[in-house]
Amino acid sequence: MGFFNKLKEGLSKTKNSFNEKMNNVFSNFRKVDEDLLEELEEVLIMSDVGVDTSIKIINNLRNRIKREKIEDEEGVKQALREEIKKIFDTVDEGINLETSPSVILVVGVNGVGKTTSIGKIANRLKQDGKKVVIAAADTFRAAAVEQLEVWANRANCDIVKRNEGADPASVVYDAIKITKEKGADVLICDTAGRLHNKKYLMDELEKIKKVIDKELPDASKEILMVLDATTGQNAISQIKAFKETVDINGVILTKLDGTAKGGAVIGIVSENKIPVKFIGVGEQIDDMEKFNSDDFVKALI
Questions:
Q1: Are the C-beta atoms of residues 234 and 17 closer than 8 Å to each other?
Q2: How many CA atoms lie within 13 A of 15 on its CB side?
Q3: Helix %, strand %, coil % for the chain, to 5?
């Protein structure tokens, strides 16, 4: 199944909810007027797009309807698609892995699916012909290393680990050494789930970054935050909090197939000016894809 079909299937709950609300709006209106726009704004807000982003989209849509004299339902829907697409066009969705080795540092709160995302991304990179090493730097949570090892084995990647409670930065240091020795293309570093207000955990993350910058100063680096799509608007506030401490340059969105809150993707990008780079649309190892905003908007509306 190609990405678009997987995405369409994964977005089915969001799409059904979104389109049901939208169709109800259009069935009650005979003309394109201010009342229609207010109803569409409410649909966006109820679909977890976010208040500020929804207002911005509808304001742009209002101006466009006047300018282009749009008078029919399909014209409004097409203009809405294009206004949502413009939000994604302001950020770069590409994965910067230009150097060999490159580094992906994965962060986020507990329970969002960091470990499974790392396994799926490693598998995806292997399929692209890249040699991958995984650093099990979540030494804080019981069984985290074992869980990551299962995924590393599934993806047929090397894993660097230490005992529970070991210094995470030293695990990353060892992993960098092995990455260089093996001539690997990408090092993916797992980190402990943390809340932004836990200073010691944020300090630990800073220490890991310093090790990476010192040992691989010229490497391409992606700091990706994993967000759970089922949390909707909460995902937007999570990333805002993390950005105060960590220079995140992309998002991995998980569990999109299990929620009707996929509209949050639009708010995440709009309100944080940060791209979604990978998207999880299932539980299997190949259910992680590079995000494509064209396909996302088509699958949504």
A1: no
A2: 15
A3: 55, 15, 30
Q: How far apart are CA 169 and CA 113, in angstroms?
A: 21
One DSSP character per residue, 168-184 reads: HHHHHHHHHHHHHHHT-
Both ends of the chain: CA-CA distance in Å?
Answer: 20
Contact between 99 and 222 under an 8 Å Cβ cutoff? The reply is no
- In this predicted structure, which of 205-209, 212-216, 288-292 has the lowest mean pLDDT? 288-292
pLDDT number for residue 1: 54
Radius of gyration, CA atoms only, the chain? 21
pTM across the whole model: 0.88
Of 91, 73, 36, nearest to 58 (Cα)? 36
DSSP 212: H
Q: In this structure, are strands 158-160 and 276-280 parallel, antiparallel, or unpaired?
A: unpaired
What is each CA distance from 21 to 39, 46, 218, 239, in whole angstroms?
9, 9, 49, 28
